[in-house]
Specification:
By secondary structure, the protein is of the alpha+beta class. It has 2 domains: 72 residues, Arc Repressor Mutant, subunit A; 31 residues. Helix content is 61%, strand content 13%. The protein has 6 helices and 3 strands. Strand 2 and strand 3 form a beta hairpin.
Length: 107
């Protein structure tokens, strides 16, 4: 996968723990880059780079409010992640149901 394609992939975007934490914070509401950066132990530049990647993946929207850039979560692309994880949820539910049945039959 080329670097450009990787940056637009939602799975790549959420692979980094810092980016996941940014999404968690943006899930609470729109914030400025300075407000977001204050919650992390990394440089403002590093946070800006993470936000740029999240924008390229389509999970963050940015707009200007005066001289300030405000970031907001756009969760719709995360549906791809949910759809993928949901298959594993069904898998584990079936396994746990089978284990429960086995334990009931073999106390």
């Amino acid at each position: 996968m080329t670097r450009r394609l990787a940056h637009t992939d939602v799975f790549f975007a959420i692979a980094d723990p810092t980016r996941r934490k940014l999404l968690d914070r943006l899930g609470r509401g729109e914030q400025s880059v300075n407000a977001l950066a204050a919650e992390f132990d990394v440089s403002l530049s590093a946070i800006s780079q993470h936000l740029r990647l999240l924008r390229e993946a389509g999970v963050v929207i940015v707009h200007r409010l005066g001289r300030e850039r405000r970031y907001r979560l756009y969760a719709r692309p995360l549906r791809k992640v949910w759809d993928w994880v949901e298959g594993y949820e069904r898998f584990w539910k079936a396994k746990l149901d089978a284990l429960g049945k086995h334990l009931e039959e073999n106390p």
